[in-house]
Amino acid sequence: MNADIRYSIIIPVYNEEAVIDQTYRRLKQVMDSTKEPYELIFVNDGSCDRTTVIIKKFCDQDNAVKLITFSRNFGHQIAITAGMDYALGAAVVVIDADLQDPPELILEMIAKWKEGFDVVYAKRTKRKGETFFKKQTARLFYRILKASTDLDIPTDTGDFRLLDRRVCEELKRLPEKNRYVRGLVSWVGFRQTAVEYERDERLAGETKYPLKKMIKLSLDGLTSFSFKPIKMANYAGVMLILCGLLSLAGMLLLKLSTATVITGWNLVIALQLVLTGILLTMMGIIGEYIGRIYDETRDRPLYIVSECYGMKKKERKVKHVS
Ligand code: UDP
Ligand code: MG
């Protein structure tokens, strides 16, 4: 690791020719003010406009600028991951290229990091210039995710955050493909805190997150951190069986205590409920097994040690079981 670099700023870019100039200028201004060595890593996620040409120009003028270009569009979360693989700094900051995340907030994050926090994430108190639909669906998604998992994934928080080197190293050890990076950061743990901000409008250009990509991201988030959807089949199955059995019991009671004639289709419906319930429950059980297989294939480490105390250096060597 290059010990000279203190901060690595990772900026995923996808067709951002309209803003990239301003973004570079503002980031440079903020990072220069720290008076510490830093690098700006632009991860070009397969842009097909002038983004590459513009960033190459920054690289030629400024040693702090680095560019990684993907062979095609692999997606925002993968771009962030690549940035982390190449980052050399003691602290790593991920920020969007469209200036919706104010670069000035990085200074606040650095201050918290110097206080001893390992992760400083930026929590949005307001989102400006985004459609009602986007704001409401995002709001709903964060709440559903929070309710579906035991993991403490902060709401209204994107990927704009600072990570200590050791958090970055742990993230690099997670080999899963469908990555929901902000969830993985929560999963890794360590001392985490928030700084609040109002999210600005995109400076120029259009969102690179159409509905299709948003749905993919939310499904990645939900399926990576929650088994609730599988469990729902079980609950629904048990409910159906109960309903079927109750109606059968009701019919039997009516038949025995009164002269009511129970027609055939009543019986068919009740039996249908019980049978569908049994099928759903069985599917849920198979789902539980698939869930466990999924858990194993993700190959996350079983635990992460943050500190060993009262041990000699040799004893401190962590042996991970994975
Ligand atoms: N981005 C990317 N690859 C993609 C989509 C987006 O690298 O496939 C980058 C984009 O250039 C920006 C960041 O990810 O820096 C966030 O995208 P955007 O601002 O369009 O999302 P929104 O803020 O509208 O949710
Ligand atoms: Mg944006």
Describe this entry's structure for a reader.
The two termini are 25 Å apart. This protein has helices at 20-32, 51-61, 76-86, 105-115, 132-148, 165-172, 181-188, 211-225, 228-257, 264-298; strands at residues 7-13, 38-44, 65-69, 91-94, 119-127, 157-164, 192-199. The chain has 2 domains: 7-210 and 301-309, Spore Coat Polysaccharide Biosynthesis Protein SpsA, Chain A (Alpha-Beta Complex); 227-298. It has 322 residues and is an alpha/beta fold. The relative contact order is 0.11. Helix 9 (228-257) packs antiparallel against helix 10. The protein has a 7-stranded mixed beta sheet with strand order 3-2-1-4-6-5-7, with helices on both faces. Residues 8-171 form the Glycosyltransferase 2-like domain. Its main location: membrane. It is a multi-pass membrane protein.
Question: Could you give a quick summary of the protein structure above?
Answer:
The protein has about 325 residues and is of the alpha/beta class.
Please, what is the average pLDDT? 90
The major pleated sheet works out as:
7 strands, mixed
Q: Strand arrangement, largest sheet? A: 3-2-1-4-6-5-7
Estimate what percentage of residues fall within beta strands.
Answer: 5-15%
As an assembly, this protein is: single chain
Number of domains: 2
Q: What Rg, in angstroms, do the CA atoms define?
A: 26 Å
Helix fraction bin? 40-55%
What would you give as the CATH superfamily of the largest domain?
Spore Coat Polysaccharide Biosynthesis Protein SpsA, Chain A
Bound heterogens, unique: uridine-5'-diphosphate, magnesium ion
Q: What is the succession of H and E elements? A: EHEHEHEHEHEHHEHHH
Q: In CATH terms, what is the architecture of the largest domain?
A: Alpha-Beta Complex
Number of helices: 10
Q: CATH top level of the largest domain?
A: Alpha Beta
